[in-house]
Design brief:
Strand content: 35-45%
Helix content: 25-40%
CATH topology of the largest domain: Jelly Rolls
Number of strands: 9
CATH architecture of the largest domain: Sandwich
Structural class: alpha+beta
Shape: elongated
Number of helices: 3
Number of domains: 2
Length: 175
């Protein structure tokens, strides 16, 4: 039951004896309040994990240019701000790069190049819908890598009512 329905039921009994116009005005005000709350929830920042290896360390064996890990894409109707990144990298040679990828895992931009050891930091890198973070092998070597990059996403299109709907559209071929 919505906030509007609950409030209307509670107030209905108290206002019945009064002028009908007062009740109508009150009902309209409650409806507008409910719409304002819904709109505010649509434009609030939402915590988001951009890239995660789930605590596992992955092998960096491969060829230069290989994408080792690709993160979650930004859902349609949203943009993301990466606030914290952590890359755990142990190697006996080789380097990796933290990159921005498009929906086809093609490199759009390099964020941190030539990572040879653990790297972490904060910032405000912005990703647009469909873009994602990735870790790319720069030079071959033998090592293990893990990562966790977090931040927030924000709705840019208030027509998309929920994250679940946006993800469904993305998974269903929205791009």
């Amino acid at each position: 039951m919505s906030f509007e329905a609950i409030a209307s039921n509670l107030i209905n009994e108290k206002v019945k004896e009064q002028n009908g116009q007062s009740f109508e005005t009150l009902s309209q005000a409650i409806g507008q309040l409910n719409q304002s709350i819904e709109l505010q929830s649509k434009i609030s920042d939402i915590p988001y994990v951009f890239l995660r290896t789930n605590g596992q360390r992955l092998s960096t064996t491969g060829s230069a240019g290989d994408i080792l890990v690709a993160g979650n894409p930004i859902p349609p109707g949203f943009m993301g701000t990466i606030e914290d990144f952590n890359v755990t990298f142990g190697t006996s040679g080789g380097t990796v790069e933290l990159v921005i990828l498009d929906a086809n895992n093609q490199v759009i931009n390099f964020l941190v190049m030539a990572i040879t050891a653990n790297q972490n930091g904060t910032g405000a890198t912005v990703l647009q819908e469909g873009q994602k973070l990735g870790i790319r092998l720069n030079t071959s070597g033998s090592g293990l890598i893990g990562s966790l990059c977090t931040g927030k996403i924000k709705r840019t299109n208030v027509i998309v009512p929920t994250i679940a709907e946006a993800e469904t559209r993305f998974i269903g071929g929205g791009f």
